[in-house]
Amino acid sequence: MHELTGKLVKAEELPEEEKNFQKNYVKAPSFLSIHLGVKASVLPAGTDCHHFVLEDDWSNLEKPYGSIFLSIPTVLDPSLAPEGHHILHIFTTAGIEDWEGLPRKDYEQKKELVANEIIRRLENKLFPGLQDSIVLKEVGSPKTHRRFLARNDGTYGPMPRGKPKGLLAMPFNTTSIDGLYCVGDSCFPGQGVIAVAFSGVMCAHRVAADIDLEQRSPILDTGLLGVLRWLRTLA
């Protein structure tokens, strides 16, 4: 969000609330995502839906490609894939700077090489024979996420600079600048499809009320917005 306000509002005009947000949150790195369609036989019986892989030691946790997140939705709902197959969604943190300035051919080759290395690690750690079981593979780099998700540098979103302060420390839809609203995963209630959809719906209602397309209670609005602003100061 702070990149957007930096473009719309001059630094000296930025509300104190937004300055505090920038102090408390930092832009998260981007990520590499891999979607696989695999033969069901490669997964042992009783395989869990979610997995987290961190080899070696904890020092690799925040390094690019250091840890791997894996979700297998077809474990919970087999109808999501053709019979006899599973879907694997794999992702790991990655910086967009590693992907900038590459010729198209080199870029595609790098996606293939990095994805295959991630798959190899999962094969060694969880599912022997994974590579040979693949029937469909799609790879998205940080540049992919920047292009199709309209994210600055393909970022995953905001993350606390220090100890998390809770969702109430995040911006709500309104700001102290008349006519400027906030919406998306930089706002309450945070990241995730459901959370972002909720943010969008609530922002739409807020705008509609402010331009008299929906009923509102000025007294309640003033009190509620005051409480919300106070809560943000606690962060």
Could you explain how this protein is built, in words?
- By secondary structure, this protein is of the alpha+beta class.
- The protein folds into two domains: 2-27 and 162-233, no CATH class; 30-152, no CATH class.
- It is 36% helix and 17% strand.
- The chain is built from seven helices and seven strands.
- The chain has helices spanning 2-8, 16-24, 104-125, 130-133, 142-149, 193-210, 218-233, and strands at residues 25-27, 30-39, 50-53, 68-71, 85-94, 134-140, 158-160.
- The strands form two sheets. The protein has a five-stranded antiparallel sheet. The protein has a two-stranded antiparallel sheet with strand order 1-7.
- The longest helix is centred in the middle third of the chain and has 22 residues, at 104-125.
- The radius of gyration is 21 Å and the shape is elongated.
- It starts with a helix and ends with a helix.
- The mean pLDDT is 87.
Could you spell the SSE succession in H and E letters?
Answer: HHEEEEEHHEHEHH
The N- to C-terminal Cα distance equals 17 Å
Radius of gyration: 21 Å
Give a count of the beta strands, DSSP E runs of length 2 or more: 7
- Average of per-residue pLDDT values: 87
Give the count of structural domains: 2
**Helix fraction bin:** 25-40%
User: What fraction strand?
Assistant: 15-25%
Question: What is the number of helices?
Answer: 7
Structural category is alpha+beta
Strand order of the largest sheet: 3-4-5-2-6
The main sheet comes to: 5 strands, antiparallel
Q: What ranges have pLDDT less than 50 throughout 5 or more consecutive residues?
A: none
Give the overall shape. elongated
GO biological process, one term: carotenoid metabolic process
Protein name: Amine oxidase domain-containing protein
InterPro entries: CrtISO-like, FAD/NAD-bd_sf
